[in-house]
Amino acid sequence: MCKHILNAQVSIRAPCCKQWYDCSECHAEKQTHKLVKTMEMGFLCKKCKKAFYKDMEKYEESDEFCPYCDNHYVIEAKIPHAVVGVEGEDARIDARMLKDERVKAKNNHSVFELDPDEEAALLDF
């Protein structure tokens, strides 16, 4: 399972070390050498588990599908994003983490607004 591309549909065969990786970043993490570029790439479909080769010099729109199961493997990559949030239990069971919108918030006093009592105290001064 690739941690760089969450929806990877195929694995690629690295021509340099003849091993399968989900993406080029996975290859870079596990190997000390750079990924060798080639015009004939080996793919392994994750849906039907069959390997196939594609010639990148003659790549067409119809080549975006697995030749065995027609799985569309050239799709926009979903990459993980860092999310800052509060983890909690299911809100349907324990709703203590949720803000109750029905409760009216207190008026926050501004520095420029005075209560009538504060204003009278300042005037008497």
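Above is the first protein from milestone M3; the second protein from the same milestone is given next.
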Amino acid sequence: MQAVSIRGRGLTIDPAGEEEAPAERVGRLVRESPVVIFARRGCYMTHVMKRLLAAVGAHATVIELDAGAAEDLAAAAEASGHGAVPALFVGGAPVGGLEGLMGLHLSGRLVPRLREVGALCA
């Protein structure tokens, strides 16, 4: 993996210096944190997603990828189920992008889901 910035704790890009396939790496990173966003560096939609999550009391691990990490961008987009980044995962399950997050929020299912995966205090 190249050109990556991770904002979160306890995440490793390549454990013990081992190479992982992009899809395996995305799957592992999604499992390591209850709320993960894969995004392009400087993406305004990611900013909106982070603000909404923070407003309800959750803080996402944001993995910013630039154009040099094309394979990882493609793997994250494919895993998200909507084929694009930003790609949000809650409890290891794909939510989609900003539209998916807004849909969960407006339906009243976001906070219960975040609580279920341990991303919120009771």
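Note on the second protein: The first helix runs from residue 22 to 31.
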